[in-house]
Amino acid sequence: MGVFRNENAAALLVRDTKQQGKCSRVNPMNRSTLRCAAIALFLFPCLTHAAEKSDPKATMQQPAVAEALRFVQSNAEANIETQIHLCEIAAPEFHEEKRAAAVEELFKAAHLQNVHTDAAGNLIGDRPGNNPRPHIVIAAHLDTVFPEGTDVHVTRNGNVLKGPGIYDDCRGLAALVGVAQALDAGKVQTAGTITFVADTGEEGLGDLRGMKEFFRNKSNSDIDAFISIDGPEPITDAITGGVGSYRLRLTYSGPGGHSFNAFGIANPIHALGRAIAKIDEIQTPETPRTTFNVGRIGGGTSVNTISSSAFAEIDMRSEDSGPLEATKAAVERAAQTALDEENARWHDHGKLTMKIDLLGYRPTGSTPADSTLIDTVRGVNQAMGLSALTTSRQSTDSNFPMSLGIPSITLGAGGTGKDAHTVNETIDITDAWKGVQRLLLVVSIFPN
């Protein structure tokens, strides 16, 4: 939109005042005043927007928020104990219910309302604000990559905690609870409702099932912002873009037989080898970053048996949907060519069949750099004396709401983690409470 010329603005003002019967002619001596008034009216929405924009430093000094921030720091050790407690409750994929039950008690103790579990096992609780909107959702995932039977005992050496999932995402769950507790302790009145979610199915083959269920039939007309708490993100950073992914299982099947007596029939394992070799030759762009990986293979019963089946699980990722779809198509072509070659090699004796199953799909997405949500996080960083905000793209719970057009972001929970997705996962919890304070300020300010 361009700036009106003064004469046009004055003419519009004169026209409007004539229509209202307030004047019928303009004194030349007052034209300058009218021009300024017209320009001021034109700029008024911009000035109003600037005036309404929250000042994080001022918000930090409000008595209720200041008390909540003090609570976070004084409650830091108790929050770490919560992190350890939750992490020592196993939560393998598709079996998060015991950990969810422990979080439910903490949600209720923080006086969240309407605490309940949905069809996907997400634990949900609301904290009403002065109005229903803006409606913010803040979430951390319950599940881990570790199978049932994994020893989830947590050890502590000073400020270093060690245990499976101790920061991905036990730290996120502790921070989620910590924000709810601090808002309650400070009796903070937010502008709108905050919904807290301990969600399922973020890792591995979970396929974001928790987020897909939560956002079923929801859009940006229902939710104004989404915040995921996850992973090793430094509290100066934010994930603002979602790396999309496909996960496929490729299976070749045939009659199988004895390695000597049945020799001359097509072999599913040989077909799989052909396919993997062809997949390895696929070319992907460096920008947007696009990757593929054959992560698991299996098949066969013994060294002297022609297998009746063989499978591979394949992961493909990209920052953009176009290259992601192209890579998936290339993998499928490689699989089909391998099948055709193996059958041709043995003249269709023991002819093989192929099946490709979709194990998971995560959509791509992003939140604009000039969005209110990112601007809020940027202001909080500055107010807390942290480094300037840096952004990146990853695959997190935020992918799904991003794909719906809901402003979404993933933030760290404090502390410094390493060796994620291994039994040697650790986190240095020095000043981890600052991550909770940052999250607290973001939900308290946006877009208050």
UniProtKB/TrEMBL annotation:
GO molecular function terms listed in the Swiss-Prot or TrEMBL record: hydrolase activity; metal ion binding
Cross-referenced InterPro entries: Bact_exopeptidase_dim_dom, Peptidase_M20, Peptidase_M20_dimer, Peptidase_M20A
Residue ranges constituting the Peptidase M20 dimerisation domain according to the UniProt record: 244-341
PANTHER family, per database record: ACETYLORNITHINE DEACETYLASE (PTHR43808), PEPTIDASE M20 (PTHR43808:SF17)
Superkingdom of this protein's organism: Bacteria
Protein name: M20/M25/M40 family metallo-hydrolase
Organism (species): Terriglobus albidus
Keyword Iron part of the UniProt annotation: no
Keyword Mitochondrion belongs to the record: no
Signal peptide span: 1-50
Alphabetized UniProt keyword annotations: Hydrolase, Metal-binding, Signal
